[in-house]
Specification:
By secondary structure, the protein is α/β, with parallel strands linked by helices. The protein is built from 4 helices and 9 strands. The two termini are about 15 Å apart.
Amino acid sequence: MKTRLLLLVCIILSASAFSADRPNFVIVLADDMGWGDPQCYQADSKIPTPAIDRLAAEGLKFSDVHTPSSVCTPTRYTLLTGRYTWRTRLKSHVLDGFDPPLIGEGEDTIATLLKRVGYKTHCIGKWHLGAEWTRKDGSKMPNRDMASGFRQGLDIDFTKPFQGRPIDVGFDSYFGISASLDVSPYCYLRGNRVVSIPETPTEKKRDGVLMNQVAGVASPGFKLDEVLPKIGAEAAKIIRESKDDPTPFSATSR
């Protein structure tokens, strides 16, 4: 994970018409951030975190909280479903950008629970929990042998919609990327389609100090350093557009 995706936020926002029974709330899931990084937990931290510090000062701080895993997919799965990932087919490692959905059909998530009590739900950012892609021969992408490495996606028909993403597990809208920024496909997703067809083959390369990208396919003009700003802007847009809506809402930016 490292700093490949510096911030995967899982934002869950609720009622804009703030009320005691359905308050607005935000869950932020940060990639590779430790308890000692925010200055509100570690005064000697070299990272300025004024916004997080203000949230801590005006709210509550927890001092005994644990992650279900140190890597992406299991952490996301547990956050959204409340279940350990080893109860699924994924016993170790993470999914790639083309693995089938990890969240089972009909399985409850934070989003489905919120929708039952009247919330609008939105997901923004890195998904990394699988989807059902269609290959050019019409077949579905199969499960991957974890020992075989990440797949390139050269045989995917990106004109077809995919299933198993956020909008299939309770979210009303989605914008983000399939998996980590070091694995294919290098493109943005909105709803259940790609924003721009990733038809440009890419070679395995090292981009920056920690980014070791696998070969794959990319959308025209897709740039790694623009991903975080786009995800942040989309999350902020959802908040601004929803703040005066009397309907409670939730948004996940990861």
